[in-house]
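Course assignment 3, question 2. Fill in each field.
Student: A.L.
Task: Predict the tertiary structure for the chain below.
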Amino acid sequence: MARLADYFVVVGYDLDKRVEGEGQGRILQRFPEKDWEDSPFPQGVELFCQPSGWQLVPERQPASFFVAVLTDISSDRHYCACFTFWEGLDNPQSEASEVDEADEEPAVVQPAKIFAPKSLVLVSRLDYTEVFRNCLGLIYTIHVDGLSVPLETVIGNLLTCIIPIAGGSQRTITLGAGDRQVIQTPINDSLPVSGSSVAQLFRQLGIINVLYLFCAALTEHKILFLSSSYQRLTDACRGLLAIMFPLKYSFTYVPILPGKLLEVLSTPTPFIIGVNSFFRSETQELLDVIIADLDGGTITIPECVHISLLPEPLLQQIQTALSMVLDPELEFADHAFPPQSLQPSALKIQDKEIRAVFLWLFARLFQGYRWCLHIIRIHPEPVIRFHKAAFLGQRALTEDDFLMKVLDGMAFAGFVSERGPPYRATDLFDDLVANQVERIRQEETCPHKVMSHVKELAEQLFKNENPYPAVAMHKVQRPSESSQNSTQNQTVFPGLDEVAVQLFIDHAAAKLKSAPPVVKVELKSMVPSGPPLGDIVDRNGNVMANSARRLEVVRNCITYIFENKMLEAKKLMPAVLRALKGRAARVCLTQELNQHVLQNRAVLDDQQFDYVVRMMNCTLQDCSHIDEHGIAAALLPLVTAFCRKLGAGITQFAYSCVQEHMVWTTMQFWEAMFYSDVQNHIKALYLETEDGDQQGNLGESGSRREIGALELASEQNRLWPTLSKEMQMERVQKEESTVFSQAIHYANRMSYLLLPLDTSKNRLLRSSGLGDVESVSNSYVTNSIAGSMAESYDTESGFEDAESSDVANSVVRFINRFVDKVCNESGVTNEHLKALHLMIPDIVQMHIETLDAVHRESKRLPPIQKPKLLRPTLLPGEELVMDGMRVHLIPDGREEATGLMGGPPLLPAEGAIFLTTYRLIFKGTPTDPLVGEQVVTRSFPVASLTKEKRISVTLTMDQYVQEGLQLRSCTFQLMKIAFDEEVASDLAEVFRKHLHKLRYPQHVQGTFAFTVGQCGKLVVEHKTKDKNQSLKTLSKNLVKTAKRTIGRQYVTKKKYSPPTWENRGSFQSELDEDEISVSEEVDQSSLTLSSTIRSSDRQTMSNVVERACCRDYQRLGLGTLSNSLTRSKNEPFRISTVNRMYTVCRSYPGLLIVPQSIPDSTIQRICRCYRQNRFPVVCWRNSRTKAVLLRSAGLHAKGVVGFFKSPNAPTTVPSQADSTSLEQEKYLQAIISSMPSYSESSGRNTLSGFTSTHMNTSDSSDKMRNPKIGALMKQVMGSKEDVPGTFSRGAVGQRAKVISHSQPKVSGKARNPSRGKWGSIRGSGRLSAYNPDVGTRLAGKESPQPNGGPSEAMFLRQQRAYLYIIGDKSQLKGGKQDSFQQWEVVPIEVCDVRQVKNSFKKLMKACVPSSPSLGPSMSFLRCLEDSEWMALLHRVLQVSVLVVELLDTGSSVMVSLEDGWDVTTQVVSLVQLLSDPYYRTFDGFRLLVEKEWLSFGHRFSHRGAQTLGSQSSGFTPVFLQFLDCVHQIHLQFPMEFEFSQYYLKFLAYHYVSNRFRTFLLDSDYERIELGVLYEEKGERKSPQVCKSVWDYIDRLNKKTPIFYNYMFSPEDEEVLRPYTFISNLKVWDFYMEETLSEGPSYDWELRGRQERAAEEAAEKPDTSAPKSQRVIVWPCYDNLSKVVPDAITKLLQDLQSLEAELGQTSEKWKDTWDKIKNTQRTETKLESKPSFSSSLLMSSNLSHQRRSQGVYLQESGVGSSINLGLDCEASATSTPVAGRPSTSTLYSQFQSTESENRSFEGILYKRGALLKPWKPRWFVLDKTKHQLRYYETRQDKECKGVIELAEVESVTAGTSAMGAPKSIDEKAFFDLKTTKRVYNFCAQDSLNAQLWMDSVQSCLSDA
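Answer field:
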């Protein structure tokens, strides 16, 4: 029972305390005047009566009513019903009017009468809004209408009215003024009473908005309601709380907040507050408050607030259900015949339906929550904790943000403490969550079933509020209309007589005392728990997890381990570790291991222990830190059970090996574990007593066994009141000591898992923030005395053991905190707690001591059988710098090796990494036991390392996160390695340092090419020797070379000192060199060669002459050295020695080709205009057109302007610049004059002569070629007319493309067939698809452009220029073209070196990704496209093809791009390769590289970042790009190259490997300086160490045909024109391939050695099993060319081995090959008719006939022959080709190559002997031997039988016999009758049969 109203208060306007318009209220009277004991009077009522402030108003306002809610300190809510009306006052303002005048404002006319508010307030703890409204209204009515009832009586009655709180009864009350009201109490007061406020809220805000508010309230956000109506604010807040049921809101709740208290809104805690819209502006700056505007129906969520919404599918289902309640018409809106009446239910009912939906929602959210409650004390009060992790885990909602927050929130904590106790009164929700689970689960999918359920629940909720039909017994007077509206003076509300009211109250109190107490029967019962959560398996659980096969694997593996079948277990291990990703398998593991524990202990041997620990670690590694599946919990007892004996009395437990997991450092995990253990012990405690009581009742106690802890507790609670005091005390003590003993147990357990085995390493502090754990646990029990005492205990315990104390202290602190928390919550006494705090440091200390012993012993353990470290084979001269360190090679983004693409998983592999002076080598074996016997090797040269970064790796097998390195090499190799735990981290650091030192030596002389063969000590003692050594050798060499090479006098004249090696790469020094070389000039033109070269330099000069370039110049007819000395004038060019001292240009070779007419002095002046002094020199001449190719660097800026802008500007005084530009012009003119076409066209080399050439040249073939070059030019330059963007896309570009492709035979009649060929073998028939005007354009006719640009040939001049200068677009800006110059500039965009560098990085990442690609955006092709590598190749090739075209049409070309050493070199070399077949042979290619790349100073060391100085510039593979271009051309013209693709890969590998000296240093000058260029022949110390890659290739080429291209059959003077479009380019397989069996195959010696070792191993007798002939070839493992060689290589190998068997000296393969070629040639000549079979190797048209080739091998009398068949079984062409000459087989008696050997051959069916079938055989009719032989198949070498023609009597037509082949013409049969028997034959058809019969007949007649 409760009072209806606690206090009645009259609050009025306080006239005394007015402050400038801000009035205040004061309490005029309050009844009763003393506070009630059970509910004190709430403070601040006067503020809440006028929430917007107390103000006087000029007009009377209507009376108002609202209910405010105040919360007192003990969080009880007081409902203040405020009834406010207005009373008139005389205006006191008239006296104050002087103030206004002082303010100089026009005085406002004050009304004479003003009105002040007065409020009647009822304060109650019950929420009966309507009753309060009626009561206060009645009092006001009595006052206004002046009824005869005294107010004191009414108020006295009101304050003494007592009603029941709940129970559903109705009470009629009267206040003694002729009124009557019925108060309806709810049946159950635990359900909130909402009236229609919830429905109202949804109407105001809408479904989604309210759901947002609902989720925000549950997840503890701040919510603010705005409305201009106070009552609506209260209702909205009430509605929001009602839908949160069964959770109760426990934060600040103020439905109406007075304006004075607005600063409350900036409180940091969550709240639900309502504020009048009047204060809207003041709420604007709140940053973290969600504002709901009830009047506008909007909610505003600030940006920084993230509301977690309900998990799907719940959210969707709730929305659907709500819309069905609120808007039932929606469902039928589209129906053709909607139901007649579809009104939503009445508001009251709708309100309950909405609440029912939310109830249903909570029932689904919390279903099964009771199974996650831990009851840790039953007496004296139940103490219950909720196991959040288990709940989330079983619901599979660990990821769900919303549920996590709700479970962590205060509301849920209240829910647990209120609804946790097992024995209490239950309500609707308890029933729903326990008994309706099944029903709810079935309804989920069907909204209509949900609705019917909701309707049932709504009915119950409605009934709770309105148990009886409404009764119309209300009778309350309202004030009469007249009194409400009257404006005449109303009487002021009178002061009331306190004594009279107090008398009423006292009288009532006395009556209550004498009345008998009302006993409310509380129906307590056991709370049902519902079905356990285990049955509610998450629908979205992994299917994989439940696969029985996986569990089977886990079980088997464990069985094998315990039966000691270690090999079996090892094989299953990888599968088990994969299976343990699934939850079911992990649970299965814990159960299986449990069965092997006897009496809490299981002693294992080392290997078993290792495997068990490994599995545990794998299991734990996927557990989250809260352990939601209880797996860590299940393993906890096991890790203290499994152990192994280390030595006498020393045992190592599994826990010391599984500590590296987050879960052990999580306070919540330990709490949950502790509570569940305590619960089990307490349950056991009571089950024992029960059993004792009911010994006889066996059946009953049997069933009792299964009782859950909660049921047990509820039973105990029921019995508690019946027990005696002693019994009660005894139980309390028993429970308390149970908890205490568990706490000790857990202190031990925690020290086991938190103290690392090696206590010097504090793993705990590193891996988790043990310090921050407090923030994790959400307990609100304060820490007890421990807080103050823990520190002192630490010091008292007396161990100040230096190295362990920090670990020990942190562990002690952690355990102390844990103990405090759990003991406080479970009510352990303070004495016990103190005892615990004293114990903990000792426990930890003891444990540390035992651990030290274990640690010592475990170090002595023989290490686990790790695979033996395999030694790598080293090159001669290569030495180990660091011996093998055990590492794991981890798979990167390439999938072949991991077995994902099929094949065995070769990676991850375990082995060692070796660092040698030359390479970085990993060698090991795969961890997968199924391929454990394979060896995996991955290596790359140290010099090719481009990036090294640290990574941390978790291996699948082990638990530790290891440090590792990721090393990337520009030979397209990547090593991801993780150091094994046995490798100390400082060792790994030493490894990195050594690696870095080897990668970037101080100086080139530190690279492997120089140090090879020297003593390897150099590296190891790096502290002392290093610097001096390199300096000594450097100085020695400098002196030596200076003497040997350079004329001293010039060195001294130049003020140039060679820059120190460190600066060599830096840009600054480049500039310095240029400056010097420009300014310091020696006029050397006066010195003739013989006078300048002193005797000491003669040798140098002869060396220079020997240099490749000179040989090449002579071959090209560009002059010889002797020539230049005698200065014969008839040659157009001469070899100049102006640079022999490298003074003119440091990066050029010593001898250069310049025009004959230009003196050396001019050259020295000209060279200044060009960057790096690289002036134009001739490097190649077309033997046919005599056009020359020149190369130079780009011009300096001043040069460009002066040179191109005003070529002939008349200047009065020629300045320095002008004169040089004139000389430049002269130089170019000299080059032009050297061309025969120029001198023919005009005798005089003048400009006027030039104009005439314009007119009279009529070189028809040039004209015809013109348009095509135009197209090429246009593409290369990306012309401006090209409107639509890039040239390859626009219409012009399209046209241009067409033309550049079209050189096939279409318009061949129109002109002399062009020399050379376009495209590749595939290129035929391209033209048909193109548009029709191509042909005309090729023939030289113009067709106008579609987009109005000039037509193509107009693009070039009508007449081609004599010299084209290919220059850089960006440099040539503003250059005017002069129509009278004979040269023309072609501006193109070149790729910047930076672009190449970045592109290459991306290409490496695409080809060798470091991790598997995540999505389509990272696929290989996408990455390849992003790298733009192909686009760069396309650009280089395109320019090259343009230059080739120009040279071929007889124009000279000068390539002058960038500094003349990158792109220029690429273009110039490609042009020569395409134009001159000589460069496509071995010698030629070598010469090309030596001339254009090495002599002309491509900066190999700088671009390859080979030394410390160039480290910053990074690796830029310009040469690799060139090789890739050559590879592309090779693919398109496979018959034009003497060398194979492997040769290119070999160069690509070794140009970065630093194994040879060839590609070191930046120019000839530097090579001479170091003495590398001309090493004396006798200087070679060790013959096996090759200094030059070319010598190496030559030597290797003699041994093996690996570099040779068998398809080499060049056409004479062939000019190649490859297709250059990206679609025609292929990714080079050099970037992609990998051979894990032996590492890269480019170090040939290693390969030979490995094979030898393998052979030796194979020689051991192997009796076990017959060897199979099958060879399995694995991608990325085997070396394909070795395992599956091509046919010719295979045959050559066979030949060699046969020769070896027969003891002959084997020939060189080349000789054999040439011999075969020659026989082939002679054979081809001998043939009478032109045959299709001339060898593929000789011809370039690939015919599809059979080609075969014989090799004849003389052997003493007996011949053996090898058949080189290049195609398949020939039964397809069974038609015999009459008289087809061939050498398919050679017979031992005959060595002739005559074609009559086989006069006729083909397939015939021959009938066998009696009862045998017909068989097809290959028959050969041999005139020479006069016999008919037959073979099994055409390729067969052994003759199956011979029919001597001498014995043949006749050949006759035959008939079909039994078993003959079906469907064959009758006439195809013929018989051959010999003296012995008759042979029956059958040919393919009658014609064939006739041919055979004729042939045999003719043989017979010939004989």
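Instructor remarks: Residues 1015 and 1185 are 56 Å apart (CA to CA). The chain has a mean pLDDT of 75.
Grade: pending
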